[in-house]
Amino acid sequence: MPPAKTSYRIEWRPKAREDLRAIIRYIGQDDPAKARAFAQALHDKTLPLARHPNLGRPGRPGLPDAVRELIAHRNYIVFYRVRSEARIVEILRVKHRAQRTP
Q1: Which domain of life does the protein's organism represent (predicted)?
Q2: Which end of the chain is more exposed for a tag (fewer CB within 10 A), N or C?
């Protein structure tokens, strides 16, 4: 039996963290508790990437080849890249679908 696949570490880059904070601020204008819960849910959607780093699809044209997209919510896309040699999934940006891609 082959050994179990070890997990990747998920690392949020500074711009992705700022994107998430901006989402919390925007939603929090109307409902701070809902904003925190939504941000946690969005963050939690990235957790399966630790076991399945290629879960998302390849990024759209115009993005670097290594960038992938994960639809974390019907309105939000998480852009990330997999650093296989380091076993890291880097969360690069979180964008509303209406925003320009990173």
Answers
A1: Bacteria
A2: N
